[in-house]
Amino acid sequence: MKININSEIFAPEVQMEGAYKVRMKILIGPEDGSGNIIMRHFFIAPGGNTPYHQHNYEHVIKVERGSGIAVDENGQEHELSVGQSLFVRPGDLHQFRNPNNDDFEFLCIIPNPGKKG
Amino acid sequence: MKININSEIFAPEVQMEGAYKVRMKILIGPEDGSGNIIMRHFFIAPGGNTPYHQHNYEHVIKVERGSGIAVDENGQEHELSVGQSLFVRPGDLHQFRNPNNDDFEFLCIIPNPGKKG
Questions:
Q1: In terms of residue numbers, what domain contains A41?
Q2: How far is A89 from chain B (nearest CA, A)?
């Protein structure tokens, strides 16, 4: 059993191309012994966004704070806010944007890409 | 992309032997198309507990509300509260208890047992 204090985990700026004003911390991951599941906490500052992209693994998401926009595989926008959860299928295009004045935060859980390729 | 409204999902009493005053809802799971990862929200009422048990898959946990006790594989108790995350390895004994006066709630993410056996 490994217990982490979330506030003690650093959240660096996400360096991925197309990411703007996005930070991410790993709450539970391989360093904690988790070989299959990685739990990440994303912070999108006002005006920020993740890239509109796709990959061969899924996203399991729960909004933690604020609200924002999820863009789906057809380019359609959906409002997302606290109290909502979301599933993105492997291979589906997706993007998250924060057009609001407060931080937009969500958990984004993925299978360990090191195992899933 | 599938969006769920958490409050609209029913949280039935957990029927597992040794579970007492525990309810659980699936925020994202197979019904949403998630074949690898299941995100569950547990509610332990004051005085309640999960069984002290083990299984061949891991738990990735984030406390959502209140505080409680996590019992580890050696029977040792750890206080758990909002702002903490926890990893339970496959095969490790574990239990969660709520000795307090408020609900103890946490996310508990697992690989899909239907796939992992």
A1: 9-116
A2: 7
